[in-house]
Amino acid sequence: MHYLYLDAFSGVSGDMFLGALLDLGYSAPKFQEAISRLHLPLSLEITRVKRASLQATRVKVNLHPSPSPPRTFREIEKIILNSSFSSQVKDKSLAVFENLFLAEAKVHGVSPKKAHLHEAGADDALVDILGTCFLLEELEVTHIYSSPLNLGGGFVKTAHGVLPVPPPAVAELLKGIPVYSSGPPVELVTPTGAALIKTLAKEFLAFPQLNYQRIGYGAGSRNLPEFPNLLRVFLGNQADFSPEEQIFQIETNLDETTPQLLGAFLEKALQLGAREAFLTPVTMKKNRLGTKLTLLADKKNLDRLTQAIFEETTTIGLRFFPVSRYILQRETRNIEVFGEKVRVKIARFKGQEINHQPEYEDCLKIARKKRLPLKKVMEEASKKILNLK
Q1: Contact present, 21 and 216 (Cβ < 8 Å)
Q2: Exposed, middle or buried: residue 200 (CB in 10 Å: 0-12, 13-18, 19+)?
Q3: 95, 236: one domain
């Protein structure tokens, strides 16, 4: 299993994604052979180029004839399902195309069945999307993370006229994804690139704690002066990469909020996405006794949790800051205790099992159902865990 981090300082497009993955060291002839199985009227040029003095891999799709005719989702679905790629590659590719067509349909006011691709170019989009999903499988990438996306700026000419950057379909695809605008006034995130990111990326974060083994550079079609039009990717392995450790801690000291309100808020905070929520007794200024409220949460949930704190407590201010956690590799297995299923959490450090724990809720359910002491159920579960291999 490998982890891939996308450094999208110059946005992302389908051909940049492809080029970056090939630049990690995958065989270009082997990739071309895989794409030839689609039996589409096209050819590939895979070359080494420079973008602002940096070496990168460029993938160019030559269509015969050019441009390729527009295709509906059903036509593309048929091509993908009839291909010889694995079911995993087919499923991921169809999911990307589904997001792309839904966005196009929404912004143009038509049903997804009637939507068709113009800028995404149908056949070259097939190469970009199927090729990317194929290379991710070949490189054994199981988790994809990305930086915020640089959109660029200005205007772009399309089949629907001159549109602002980001064009409507890209803007629709990137809802809920962190973006910014920097650099030259050109389009840096294409519809195909946006659809790939929306579908495949698990989380968006600043550069993670990653012990990477390989770096790939994928070149964009434009050679922009004094601006590296590249997608940079970093490939690491599971033992080295734990991006979940990067979260935010929210704190505030309270001295007027009642215990009833605090108890209710802890439950609500967890419902709103807090990873953890807890209270700590503190001595505040002027020796007043108070309570420190602490939440751990992902960046995407900060706004909703901040609003809830102000609405549900008496505080008039709070503090938050990034923190790091080390997360052990975990898996869940099942055992049988008094004829009932109990889940067991097994934790490993660098592949070695160092901790295991029966699921509390499962044990409590059995204790109530069988009218047994919870302690007895937990002890029996612990004995069964020792027999796990």
Answers
A1: yes
A2: buried
A3: yes
Task: Please measure the distance between the N-terminal and C-terminal CA atoms of the chain and give it in whole angstroms.
Answer: 22
What pLDDT score does 243 carry?
45
Q: What is the pLDDT of residue 241?
A: 45
Residues 367 and 288 in one domain: no
Last residue of a domain, one of 224, 241, 258: 241
Full domain range(s) for residue 290: 244-324
Shared domain check, 377 and 256: no
Which one of 223, 241, 259 terminates a domain?
241
pLDDT of the residue at 318: 94
What does the alpha-carbon distance between residue 6 and residue 145 come to, in Å, rounded to a whole number? Answer: 6
Query: Which residues, given as ranges, of the chain have pLDDT below 70?
Result: 66-69, 118-121, 209, 238-246, 389
Ordered strands of the 329-337 beta sheet = 329-337, 340-349, 352-358
Q: pLDDT of 266-293, one tens digit each?
A: 999 999 999 999 999 999 888 889 999 9
**Beta-bridge partner residues of 203:** 145
